[in-house]
C-alpha cells in the first residue's frame, strides 16, 4: 500500500486537480442520480473535494481546511439563501474560533512551556533513572514516559524528544540484539496511544467532543479521561508484552547514568511553569464544578504564559497553527453537512436495519483503514460528522472513531511519531507493519469492548 502511494505521489497534484474539477461539475449528476436537493448536492461536492485533498495531501492540509470555508461561503451559502434557509456566514466562520480552538491552543501553550524550560526532559530523565538496568523495566519505563507526556504534549514533539534521550541507551545494546527495535517501536506507539488519554492529547478527541457537545451530549475533560484511561493502560501493557515477545532482550543490561540536571533545584521560572500547568489541568478537570469552560481555562493559561513573559512572540509564532486550522476546517465541514441537510440524508442511507454491530464494525474498520494511510485529524473530520448523524448511537460511534484514529499505526506514514521512528534508521517498514497491525487489531477489539460495555455506564 505504501509503495503504491509513493509511486503515485509525483502525479497526485495533476490527478487531484483533474478529479476535483470533475467533482465540481458533477453536482447536477448527484441531483439526478441520488435524488439530492441543490444544497445537498453542493455540500456533497464540497465533502468529496475536501476528502480528495485531505487524502492525497496535494496541498497542505490546513490549506484544504481553509478551502472548506471558502467553498462554504462563496458556493453553498448563496444556494442555501436561494432556498430560503436561515444559514449565515458567521455559522461557518465560528467553526474556526471557538471553545475547542482555545482548548487546543491552551494545550499547545502548555507543551511549549514544558519544552522551553526543560521540564519535559527532566521528567523523562528522572523516570528513566528510576527504571533500573533490566531491559524489560527500561522498555516499560520508556512506554510509560512517552504515553504520559503525549497526554499533555504534542505526540510529535514527545517522540522527537524521547529519541534524543534514548540515543545513549541504544548504543549500549549489542549489535546482534534486536532489542533496539523494541525501543524504537515503543516510543512512537506509546506516543500514539498516550494521545487517547486527554481531550488535548490528539485532535480527533477534541473533534469528537465538539460534535457530541453540539448534539447535546456533554463530555467534560474529566469524563473523557475516565472513559479513555482504562483502554489506554491495557493497550500500553499489550504493547510492552508484544515488543518483549517480538524482540526479546536476552541477557543484556542497560546502564543509565544520572543526569546532573535532575539533581539541580528548580529555577523560579520552572516553578511558575509547574504552577501554571497544575492550575490549568485542575481547571479543566473541575470545569463542571466551577462553571468555567475548557476553552476559557485554556485562554487563561495563554494570557498568563505570555502576559508574564514566560513565552514571547517567537513562541506564539511556533504554535501549531496548521493543526488549529485543520480543526476549524473539520468543524466547518460539519456545519456544511448540517446546514445543507446532507447529514440526515447520509444517516438514512446507512443500513441501520442491518443492526448496530454491522454499522459499528464498518465505521471502525473505515477509521482504522483510513488513518493508516492519511492524517488522523482528516479521518476524524470526515467520519465523525457522519457518526453523530446516526440517531441513538452517536456517542458510541463518535468516541470509537476518535480512539481508532489514534491507534491505527501500521505504516511509517500513519502518524508523525511513526515517521520519526522510521527515520531513526533502526527499523525497516516490515518491523513497523508487523507490530503495528497486531496492535491495531488489539485496539479494534479493545475499542469495541470499551464502547459496548464500559462507556454506557456513564450515560
From TrEMBL:
It is found in: Membrane. GO terms for molecular function: phosphate transmembrane transporter activity. The chain crosses the membrane at residues 12-30, 36-54, 61-80, 92-114, 134-153, 182-201, 221-244, 272-289, 295-312, 319-337, 357-383, 395-413, 433-455. It is a multi-pass membrane protein. It comes from the Bacteria. Keywords: Membrane, Transmembrane, Transmembrane helix, Transport. Residues 52-390 form the Citrate transporter-like domain. InterPro entries: Cit_transptr-like_dom, SLC13A/DASS. GO terms for cellular component: plasma membrane. PANTHER family: LOW-AFFINITY PHOSPHATE TRANSPORTER PHO91 (PTHR10283:SF92), SOLUTE CARRIER FAMILY 13 MEMBER (PTHR10283). This is Citrate transporter-like domain-containing protein.
Amino acid at each position: 500500500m505504501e509503495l503504491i502511494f509513493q509511486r503515485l505521489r509525483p502525479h497526485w497534484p495533476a490527478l487531484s486537480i483533474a478529479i476535483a474539477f470533475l467533482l465540481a461539475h458533477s453536482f447536477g449528476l448527484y441531483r439526478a442520480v441520488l435524488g439530492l436537493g441543490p444544497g445537498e448536492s453542493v455540500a456533497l461536492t464540497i465533502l468529496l473535494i475536501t476528502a480528495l485533498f485531505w487524502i492525497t495531501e496535494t496541498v497542505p492540509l490546513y490549506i484544504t481546511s481553509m478551502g472548506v470555508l471558502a467553498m462554504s461561503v462563496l458556493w453553498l451559502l448563496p444556494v442555501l439563501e436561494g432556498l430560503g434557509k436561515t444559514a449565515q456566514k458567521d455559522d461557518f466562520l465560528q467553526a474556526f474560533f471557538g471553545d475547542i480552538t482555545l482548548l487546543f491552543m491552551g494545550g499547545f501553550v502548555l507543551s511549549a512551556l514544558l519544552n522551553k524550560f526543560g521540564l519535559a526532559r527532566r521528567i523523562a530523565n528522572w523516570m528513566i533513572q528510576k527504571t533500573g538496568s533490566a531491559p524489560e523495566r527500561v522498555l516499560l519505563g520508556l512506554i510509560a514516559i512517552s504515553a504520559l507526556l503525549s497526554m499533555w504534549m504534542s505526540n510529535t514533539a514527545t517522540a522527537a524528544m524521547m529519541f534524543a534521550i534514548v540515543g545513549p541507551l541504544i548504543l549500549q545494546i549489542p549489535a546482534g540484539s534486536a532489542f533496539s527495535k523494541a525501543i524504537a517501536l515503543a516510543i512512537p506507539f506509546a506516543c500514539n496511544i498516550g494521545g487517547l488519554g486527554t481531550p488535548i492529547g490528539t485532535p480527533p478527541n477534541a473533534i469528537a467532543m465538539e460534535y457530541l457537545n453540539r448534539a447535546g451530549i456533554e463530555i467534560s475533560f474529566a469524563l473523557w479521561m475516565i472513559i479513555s484511561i482504562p483502554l489506554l493502560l491495557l493497550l500500553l501493557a499489550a504493547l510492552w508484552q508484544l515488543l518483549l515477545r517480538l524482540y526479546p532482550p536476552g541477557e543484556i543490561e542497560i546502564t543509565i547514568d544520572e543526569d546532573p540536571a535532575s539533581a539541580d533545584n528548580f529555577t523560579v521560572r520552572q516553578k511558575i511553569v509547574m504552577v501554571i500547568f497544575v492550575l490549568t489541568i485542575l481547571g479543566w478537570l473541575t470545569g463542571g464544578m466551577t462553571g468555567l469552560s475548557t476553552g476559557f481555562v485554556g485562554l487563561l493559561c495563554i494570557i498568563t504564559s505570555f502576559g508574564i513573559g514566560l513565552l514571547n512572540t517567537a513562541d506564539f509564532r511556533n504554535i501549531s497553527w496548521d493543526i488549529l486550522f485543520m480543526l476549524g476546517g473539520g468543524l466547518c465541514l460539519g456545519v456544511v453537512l448540517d446546514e445543507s441537510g446532507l447529514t440526515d440524508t447520509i444517516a438514512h442511507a446507512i443500513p441501520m436495519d442491518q443492526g448496530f454491530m454491522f454499522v459499528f464494525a464498518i465505521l471502525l474498520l473505515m477509521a482504522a483503514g483510513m488513518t493508516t494511510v492519511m492524517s488522523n485529524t482528516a479521518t476524524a473530520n470526515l467520519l465523525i460528522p457522519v457518526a453523530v448523524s446516526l440517531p441513538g448511537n452517536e456517542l458510541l460511534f463518535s468516541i470509537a472513531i476518535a480512539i481508532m484514529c489514534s491507534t491505527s499505526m501500521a505504516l511509517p506514514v500513519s502518524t508523525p511519531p511513526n515517521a520519526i521512528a522510521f527515520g531513526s534508521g533502526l527499523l525497516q517498514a516490515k518491523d513497523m507493519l508487523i507490530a503495528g497491525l497486531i496492535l491495531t487489531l488489539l485496539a479494534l477489539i479493545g475499542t469495541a469492548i470499551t464502547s459496548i460495555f464500559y462507556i454506557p455506564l456513564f450515560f
